Each structure stands twice: as structure tokens, then as C-alpha cells.
Amino acid sequence: GENVEQHPSTLSVQEGDSAVIKCTYSDSASNYFPWYKQELGKRPQLIIDIRSNVGEKKDQRIAVTLNKTAKHFSLHITETQPEDSAVYFCAASSAFGNEKLTFGTGTRLTIIP
Amino acid sequence: SAVISQKPSRDICQRGTSLTIQCQVDSQVTMMFWYRQQPGQSLTLIATANQGSEATYESGFVIDKFPISRPNLTFSTLTVSNMSPEDSSIYLCSVVQGLGYGYTFGSGTRLTVV
Questions:
Q1: Count of CB contacts below 8 A, A vs B?
Q2: What's the burial of B39, exposed, middle or buried (CB within 10 Å: 0-12/13-18/19+)?
Q3: Rg of chain B in Å (alpha carbons)
Q4: Closest chain A residue to B38 measured between Cα atoms?
Q5: SS3 B85
Q6: Distance from CA of A101 to the nearest CA of B (A)
Q7: What's the average pLDDT block by block, 10 residues per block, for chain A (113 residues)?
Q8: Which of A10, B24, B49, B97 is the most buried (most CB within 10 A)?
Q9: Chain B: residue nearest A38 by CA?
Q10: What pLDDT does residue B102 have?
Q11: From CA B82, how far away is CA B17, in angstroms rounded?
């Protein structure tokens, strides 16, 4: 089955700097890659996703890049703000809507004011 | 995106008892997923619930311990049976509504077994 690895497990960034979180997946059939943000005591919230037919997607300060050949994808947050502090999870699925998500281990991002 | 009502939000239960968690979705969805999230950990899929068929369980999870019902396209329950302190965790349901919406999660049930 699919295995998703995520690095780093913790990340501290000065406010205003950029943060990058990386994930690798094992199943070449995976074609959907979402990123979730989970604040303490809250449910995971989808912040951005990408499909395998696209190499990059951007939404304001957040971007995701995908390298299908290397089987890795990354989350980029620019101009970080204190409210970006949370745990971020990457995930992968082989058939959007008809298949489970396999999650990475999570990255605890701390923005230092 | 779909709105999911999950309850109870939290419970403290005695070991050996069972707890049933409910998820109600405001629209019809084909698949519902049940996850467990232990403190400080990632989300682990317990099972996938399709309406009208037996749930599909992931390795390490069995129907006798986590029976699931899916009576219609908007509702599902997960029961945690014969609980032990190791079952203390957050349990979340999840659905996917369609392209552009992604997978949405319920608010979770925080279970403590004493």
C-alpha cells in the first residue's frame, strides 16, 4: 500500500520568512495530493491540493509543487504569519473520491514573532 | 463543501464498555472514512464505509472491535467496543463531496477510557 513520508517533523521560522515542508510517496498510482492544516483541538482543514497532471499550484501565500518522477511534493508558505503556526499534514490518494487518503506524519510549524 | 456533524464531541468511558460515534452529512456522499488520531500523531484510517455494503477495514483494525454502520448516504456510525485505555484517542469521520471540495473532516470525538 501507499506510504507517505513527511519532513521535517518540526519547523520554526521567523515571521515573514518562508517555510517549506516536503513529502514523498511510494505508490506511483497516486494522483491526488492534499495538504491539511490542523490547529490545536481542531479538525484538519484542507488548505491546498494538487493533482498529478499539474506541477504547481498557488493560492495567495501558499503553493504546492509536485515532482511525479521523483514522487515527492512540497508545501511552500511565504511571508509567514503567527496564525500559520499549526500542524501540517500531507496526504496522497490514488483515486480522488473513490479511495482513501494516506497521511504523512505531520510537521509542527512554529512562527516566531 | 460538505458539512459534517459528529457527536459526541468528547466522552469519558469505563474500560470494557462501548461507545458509538455518529456522523451526519448535509449531502449524499458515496464513501465515508473513519480515522483515528492518537495524541500528537497523524491520522490513521480505520475503515471505509460504503452504503449498502460491508465496511472495508485497514490492517490492524477488525470489525468486532470497530463495527460500522452505513444505513444511508448521509449517515454512519462507528462503535468502539470493549474499550481499553489504549483506545483513548480522537476519532474523526471524513467524506469527499466532489471535485474541488477535497476531503472534509468532522469535528472529531475525543475519547478517554479510564
A1: 46
A2: exposed
A3: 13
A4: A105
A5: helix
A6: 8
A7: 95 98 95 95 94 90 96 97 98 80 96 96
A8: B49
A9: B42
A10: 80
A11: 5
Q: What is the pLDDT of residues B26-38, one digit of tens each?
A: 999 888 999 999 9
Taking the CA atoms of B33, A69, A54 and A20 in sequence, report the sign of the dihedral they define. positive
Distance CA A66, CA A54 (A): 7
- Judge: B92–A43 Cβ closer than 8 Å, yes or no: yes
Cell numbers placing A5: 513520508
Chain B's closest residue to A97, CA to CA, is: B96
Q: Cis link prior to B71 (omega < 30° from 0)?
A: no
Cell of B31: 464513501
CB A43 within 8 A of CB A86: no
Contact across the interface for B105 and A101, Cβ inside 8 Å = no
Number of helices and strands in chain B (H, E): 0, 11
Taking only the tens place, the pLDDT of each residue in A32-57 is: 999 999 999 999 999 999 988 889 99
Residues composing chain A: 113
> What integer best gives the mean pLDDT of chain B?
93
Partner residue opposite B106 with nearest CB, options A43, A97, A103? A43
Query: For residue B52, what pLDDT is reported?
Result: 80
Confidence at residue A99, expressed as pLDDT on a 0 to 100 scale: 80
Listed in sequence order, the residues at least 6 apart from B102 whose beta carbon sits closer than 8 Å to its beta carbon are: A34, A46, A49, B1, B96
